[in-house]
Amino acid sequence: MTTNPADNVKTAVDRILELAQTWIVWDGIPRMADDGVRIYTPHKAIRRHTHHLIDHLAEIEALLSEQDSRPDEWLGSGVTLAGDLAPFTEADFNEARQCLLRLADLYMYRLTAAGPDEWDRPRDGHWSIRVIAEHVGDAWYADQVGKLI
Predict the structure, then answer these.
(1) Among 56, 77, 93, 112, which is least packed by CB within 10 angstroms?
(2) Closest Cα partner for 28 from 12, 40, 13?
(3) Measured distance CA(114)–CA(101) in Å, rounded
(4) Contact (CB, 8 A) for 5 and 130
(5) Residue 146 contacts by C-beta under 8 Å, 6 or more apart in sequence?
């Protein structure tokens, strides 16, 4: 039996939520990323993970329907928005949890429906669906904030 690459996304979302539930004690000080260039806060980590999952899910849909995907014009990690600096509350965690769990579900549903023949099919000039799922199946942004309690 072939493992659905969407399992990577579920694992990453579980890790993100494991960390995020500790962020309600965040002291308001942004954390320097491993790259020594970008800074992260709880809200920024959630925003970046959410946008990353949405962007690549749209890419998968475009690939499966043989359409061009919308160009990536997110502001990205180099930008910290005013909202990224807000305190992270239990309500924020609940909202993030609801959104991220649903996105993980969508990856599972879509990749299951596409089936194993589509996961590794070469895509001219694009990553395979498996590689995309592996790419977004990383909790890197949340790891930059880390576990706070």
Answers:
(1) 112
(2) 40
(3) 20
(4) yes
(5) 19, 31
CA atoms of 25 and 47, how far apart (whole Å)? 19
Which uninterrupted H or E stretch holds 39? strand 39-40
Contact 40, 31 (CB under 8 A): yes
Asked: is 6-145 a CATH 1.20.1250 domain? The reply is: no
- Full-model pTM: 0.95
Alpha carbon distance 126, 60 (integer Å)? 10
Question: What's at 33, amino acid-wise?
Answer: A
Tokens representing 9 are 């996304």
pLDDT digits (tens, 9 = 90+) for 74-114: 888 999 999 999 999 999 999 999 999 999 999 999 999 99
Closest CA to 130 of 68, 76, 67, 63: 63
What is the distance between the alpha carbons of residues 71 and 63, in angstroms, rounded to a whole number?
A: 13
Q: Supply the DSSP string of 94-141, one letter for each residue.
A: HHHHHHHHHHHHHHHHHHHHH-HHHHT--BTTB--HHHHHHHHS--HH
